[in-house]
Write a structure and sequence with these properties.
extended, mainly alpha, about 90% helix, about 300 residues, Receptor-associated Protein
């Protein structure tokens, strides 16, 4: 098995070197054609690129599309929508579609148990342990993609909460300067970077495509499952319906966000001693007892012995 893995590794390394060399030659030809401006060389490069694209399309592209259609037919629509919603909440990591996420799940479900089976067979494990480890690996491979999405969603929501107060202040200042809500939002999005800027940029693009402001803001509220952001968007929608001044709403919301952030920091500070108690009891107290009581116990043992 070690010789087989070594052969596969050497083959993959050689294949990577050949592909890297071909890519370097092709990019060199493109740069030469761009600098010199030779039409003949540009035609050669374009024909090679088109030939490669057509070859790839003939071999893989049509089959991938057929497999994707059949896979979408077999999958339930509600399940695909649920996966798409989670991917949007996670910020669409690696530009992943629901189809690619399901393929990742199936790939892990095949690769990890197969690899574990090979390792356990080489280690000459008993059948009971083999079955237990295979079942545990299958469960782990099914859980890992969802755990990755949960981690991404949690991290993204935390970043949005951190950015929220400054974002609201900039939006309020822009509206006080005389801009409307959409113009102020566009100005703030163009100057800032982060989770909120990306989400509201998408909201502005949906507005340009014909959606109403309520629908676009509801999309942001659905993608960011944070109480502060949901409350902010709810207040903005309500202020638009009732005709209340938007700047006043934003100022009040900014103060409330800062108060809640201070309360969360105080709550974490009050939980810190309780969380520190367990490592103290498990790791530090035994060492202190050994240092303080160790000599006394040794003297008592010597005395009574």
């Amino acid at each position: 098995m070690i010789e087989l893995f070594a052969l596969i590794t050497i083959s993959l390394v050689l294949l990577g070197l050949v592909l890297a060399r071909n890519e370097a030659i092709l990019s060199r030809k493109q740069r030469i054609a761009l600098v010199i401006g030779e039409e003949r060389q540009e035609k050669v490069v374009s024909t090679t690129v088109n030939t490669k694209e057509s070859l790839f399309q003939r071999l893989f592209d049509t089959r991938i599309k057929q497999f994707k259609r059949s896979f979408n037919r077999t999958n339930k629509r509600g399940k695909a929508e649920k996966i798409e919603r989670k991917l949007l909440q996670a910020g669409t990591p690696y530009s992943m579609t629901p189809f690619e996420f399901r393929i990742l799940q199936l790939g892990l479900l095949i690769v990890l148990p197969t690899f574990m089976f090979i390792v356990l067979v080489i280690a000459n494990v008993s059948i009971g342990k083999l079955l237990f480890m295979l079942l545990a690996t299958i469960a782990l491979s099914m859980y890992l993609p969802h755990a990755f999405l949960k981690m991404k969603i949690k991290s993204r929501n935390h970043k949005a909460v951190v950015e929220l107060s400054d974002f609201i202040d900039l939006l309020a200042v822009s509206m006080e300067a005389g801009l409307g809500f959409d113009q102020a939002l566009s100005k703030v999005v163009s100057k800032k970077h982060g989770v909120l800027a990306d989400e509201f940029q998408r909201c502005l693009e949906e507005l340009r495509l014909g959606k109403t402001r309520r629908e676009s803001l509801a999309g942001v509220r659905e993608r960011l499952q944070v109480d502060d952001i949901q409350m902010l968007i709810g207040n903005i929608i309500q202020a638009e319906q009732l005709g209340i001044g938007m700047v006043q709403i934003l100022r009040i919301q900014s103060e409330e966000v800062r108060i809640r952030r201070k309360q969360r920091a105080e709550e974490k500070a009050m939980k810190a001693p309780i969380k520190m108690l367990f490592p103290l009891v498990i790791f530090i107290f035994p060492c202190i007892f050994i240092i303080l009581l160790g000599p006394v116990l040794l003297q008592l043992m010597e005395t009574f012995m």
